[in-house]
Amino acid sequence: MFLHVGGDHIVSAKDIIAIMDIEKTTISNDTRNFLKVSEEEGFTVTVAVNEMPKSFIVVQDKHRSKVILSPISTNTLLKRYKIQNRKNIAIM
């Protein structure tokens, strides 16, 4: 199954490591540093350049991790995931 994360981007549900709320998680210095390093190292993909990201999704892409900045809220992503996969997933 696949999850639409914004723009014309989809990810395989089995590759999702975490779905994080930007506003809630960037309070932490660790999260801000993680996102900064991810961008500097070229692991960050912004799916909607003209929209503010509401969430970020960490996925395993082949043998490395990738961070996807999405304009879609974590709640909407969770609903889409549950509809397609009928499994529970934690949102942070």
What does this protein structure show overall?
By secondary structure, the chain is α+β, with helices and mostly antiparallel strands. The protein has one domain. 30% of the residues lie in helices and 35% in strands. The protein is built from three helices and six strands; from the N terminus they run E-E-E-H-H-E-E-E-H. The chain has a four-stranded mixed sheet with strand order 3-5-6-4. The chain has a two-stranded antiparallel sheet with strand order 1-2. The longest helix has 12 residues. It is globular and about 35 Å long. The two termini are 22 Å apart.
Spell out the key features of this protein.
single chain, 92 residues, alpha+beta, four-stranded mixed sheet, two-stranded antiparallel sheet
Listing every helix as H and every strand as E from the N terminus to the C terminus, the arrangement reads EEEHHEEEH
Shape: globular
**How many whole angstroms does the radius of gyration measure?**
12 Å
Kindly report the average pLDDT value.
90
Strand content bin? 25-35%
Q: What is the count of distinct domains?
A: 1
